[in-house]
Each structure stands twice: as C-alpha cells, then as structure tokens.
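**User:**
Make up any protein.

**Assistant:**
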Amino acid sequence: MEKGRQVHRLLKMEIRIFCPECKDEQDHIVLSQSRQTRVRCTTCGTVHQLARQKEQPPLHVKTIVSEEGTSRICAIELLPDEPCQIGDHHVAVCGAEYIGVEVTAIERGQHRVRKARAKDITALWSRKIEEVLVRVSVHDGRSTVPLAIRVSGEEPFVVGEVYRVGNRRFRIAHMKMRDGAALRHEGQKGIARKIKRVYGYPL
C-alpha cells in the first residue's frame, strides 16, 4: 500500500481547455467531479465549470522524433480539435515502440507556428524525453470527462487501484494499451508510455 500512496502523490490531474478569463487554451487543474466538473486555470486562477464533450476519433499526426543525433518518422494520436503547442509532452508511436517526446516545432501548411489544433497540423518535430501524458476518461454514470496526467514514462498504473488527486479519488476500471491489448482484470499493470487510455470512475 505504501507504493500506492507514493503514486498518488505523483499524480496531478490536468486538462487543457479554453479559459474564459485568459481568452485562450490553458492548462487547468480538476477540482471536483459530480454532475459537472469544476476546474481551475493554472495561469490566472479562475475557477469555472467544464462543458461536457463527446470524445472524437483521434488523428495520427506525423511526428519526427530526434534522439542522439538521429531522427525517425513516427506518429502522435491527437483529437481533431485538440490544441498542441511547443513544449507539450506526448507519446509517439514509432513502429513497435512507444516513446515519450516533447514537441519542439509545429508545421501548419507552409508555416511554422507555436501552437495549432491537430486537424490543422501538417507535421510535428519532437525530441525524446522521459515524461509522458496519460489520457484518462472518468465516467460518473452520466458523462465522461477526458483528462490527462503527466508522469514518468515508466510510471505503473494498476487496474483496480485508487488514485488520489487533491481531495478527489478515482478507481481504474480498465486500460487500453497501444498494442491493442485491453487490461480489465484487477491487478493487471501497464506502464505509462504503453497506455493508450485509462478508464475509471470517481469515488
């Protein structure tokens, strides 16, 4: 159980959405989840409610990954309207490998930009790093809220375990892996860089 408590302290549940005060896409901390989700902007501190959204099929965005002087063409899965900006952390699929990367450049058509929505991106450039974003869908019986957790690429997630974020908790119900496997049995474990999505419910 000590290991579980250590994992809980590492987790920070965030989602990148539009802030009505900043008038732009910003990182938000999830404060509570019930019929509606309350979030706080990490830039200006404004607290507001998150509008419910239906998940869209992801796009496979062309991504060039640089590592130790070499580069290769890979792909990152992003939702069509999902914003991406320089400095974002993702998991790139490179053949049979799953690599944590940081975005270093974004190409939109003939131009280089600092940020863009996935559907407008021609290609991404990135470098290998140790951290990744794990996508989480938390279902409360009425709606599903998409979230993201930034952790080490080797961080383990376990089906059936409870994860604490501030004073909120959710239990992992199952996980979808990047190789197509589904982990549904209590105690099954996956590491962050190999997880496509975590599904859970609030406690």
